[in-house]
Amino acid sequence: MTHLSEWVPHQPQAGDPIQARIPGSVLYNAIGTAARGNWMEEAHEQGTVVTMGMDHPRIDQRRHILVVEDDLIIADLIDQILRFEHFDVSHVVDGQSAVNFVEETVPDLILMDLMLPVMSGIEASRIIKSNVRGEVAQIPIVAMSAGVNLRAAAGELPVDGVLAKPFDIDELLATVGIHVRAADERAANQA
């Protein structure tokens, strides 16, 4: 079990603010613990304010990410992580819904599971990337899957990046950051 004291430079007194750099995976576990009502409530009762940061670059502007995932537990976990990092998140459960979604709303990034009902993530990615509306075709898509060797198949997939399941929080956030920044750079170059 990891304790907050490992990242806090000194022993705080009641009422002292605490600042610490905490790895994302530890922070998310702490958030889960807090949601179950443990140490965060105790810190509040003692008058201690806890300020936590993630060990990855922050995105300055609020971005919209579409999560295409039929496993609701995984989708909820990704949603919570991204919302905690101040992203707007939408979720659909199949490839056809993803294709329909981007016709109405153009997200900054799509996290696409490959094994989906109704229409596979691969087929949905092909349709999105071949869209005649340039803004839709340029949406970065990151493929997510546990059943496919993504790193080996990456060049053959109609996607911009891959995220193999299971992934850790830092890897998710780093991948999102890379693709959102790349999309920003493409948009700036076209302006």
Keywords:
191 residues; alpha/beta; two-stranded parallel sheet; 8 helices; 7 strands; 19% strand; Rossmann fold; 5-stranded parallel beta sheet; single chain
Strand content: 15-25%
Named CATH architecture of the largest domain:
3-Layer(aba) Sandwich
- What is the CATH C level class of the largest domain, in words? Alpha Beta
Unreliable segments (pLDDT under 50, ≥5 consecutive)?
Answer: 18-60
Helix fraction bin: 40-55%
Taken from the alpha-carbon principal axes, the silhouette is: globular
Largest sheet: 5 strands, parallel
Spatially, the strands of the biggest sheet line up as 4-3-5-6-7
The tally of domains stands at 2
Average pLDDT rating: 74
Output the helix-strand order. EHHEEHEHEHHEHEH
- How many H/I helices? 8
Radius of gyration: 19 Å
- What is the SS-derived class? alpha/beta
